[in-house]
Specification:
With about 100 residues, this protein is α+β, with helices and mostly antiparallel strands. It has two helices and five strands; from the N terminus they run E-E-E-E-H-E-H. The protein has one domain: Aminopeptidase (3-Layer(aba) Sandwich), CATH 3.40.630.30.
Length: about 100
């Protein structure tokens, strides 16, 4: 899977079958905030969201950043995958804005 990071736009993307999937994030100080995850309906259920979130979390870990999962999907993924430096978020985006 060829996941591309655009640091300027603060997004990880994966494009396949004419559709673009993405994880949007922000970095403030040493906090890497995963804001949203989006996979079009046509591509759901193929593990793409998980691969995008993993790429984002691996980037944060490699760069010594703490991960704040504002996106509810990222929060759930991180609860299932230990070993990342997570800062608990008391705010979560509307689950409909964090599509999986």
């Amino acid at each position: 899977m060829d996941i591309i990071q655009d640091k300027g736009k603060q997004v990880f993307t994966y494009t396949t079958e004419g559709f673009t999937c993405r994880v949007n994030y922000t970095i403030t100080g040493d906090i890497f905030d995963i804001r949203s995850t989006f996979v079009p309906d046509q591509l759901r259920g193929k593990g793409i969201a998980a691969q995008l979130v993993k790429a984002a979390c691996d980037y944060a870990r490699k760069n010594g950043l703490k991960i704040k999962p504002t996106c509810s999907y990222a929060d759930l993924w991180l609860k299932r995958h230990k070993g990342y430096n997570v800062v608990e978020s008391d705010e979560h985006n509307d689950p409909n804005s964090c599509l999986i």
